[in-house]
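pinned: reference chain
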Amino acid sequence: MKTKSIIANLHTHTVFCDGKASAEEMVQAAMQEQLLVLGFSAHSMYPFSSDWHLEVRAHESYCAEIRRLQLAYADKIRILLGFEADYVPGLCIPRFDCYERFAPDYLIGSVHYIGNEKGIFTVDNTAEELVSGIRRCYNDNVKEAVCDYFAREREMLNRGDFTILGHPDLMRKLNVKLHLFDETDSWYRRAVDETAQAIAKAGVIAEINTGGMVRAGVPTPYPSSYFLSKLHELNVPITISSDAHSPEYIVAQFDVARQYAKAAGYTEYAVPLAGTVTFYSL
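pinned: its structure tokens
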């Protein structure tokens, strides 16, 4: 599979968190696919951790390895150091000042957890965890849980300081299997509309993420076509990422994502480089 006009992937995981390959193996896969820019984005809850986030003490070694690869492959591919920084209220927030000691090239801000005083849970792990979490924390009120996800995302956009919004409607991932909610319902679209407005106000890049297509059978990338059309109406820039956890998915479904973006009205995508955003034709 060739990347054609897509020259960058900025959402890449390795064995430092929940990926399946080393950082160097991911670099080699990116070069095989003729990428010109590869960004690493280890899951991080700094200064905390979980069993699938970068360990607190491993942040330094992760950064050292990515910096080593930057030098080793400088004449072949541009490598960027980033984090996929989680937002959990009262615990961690994706802000450059929180990651200042690591000097990242960019941050992806993502919401994976929702919950309340009854507990928290991830929305994209297993169907069992999602159903159990909604029952335990929201008394089986799916609408309340979904709206809470988007509310947290808007809160992160308001409070955070990051470059790219990761998988803007991650709640869709397990809904393909569980059919918990209808994306055409008016309440769901209101939540999407409000979140699109918050994305535009925050001035971040929205990610078209193909990871759910290859790992969970989601029929289209994140965000949905409706969500993406709203982002285009609001002039929100987009980037295309594979959310790769193994080498074979480094450019997974990029051709689909290109056409998806074009169908929404986009003609270019963004790549943040050296403190500026560069745009490339789709």
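why pinned: The first strand starts at residue 8 and ends at 9. Residues 142-159 form the longest helix (18 residues).
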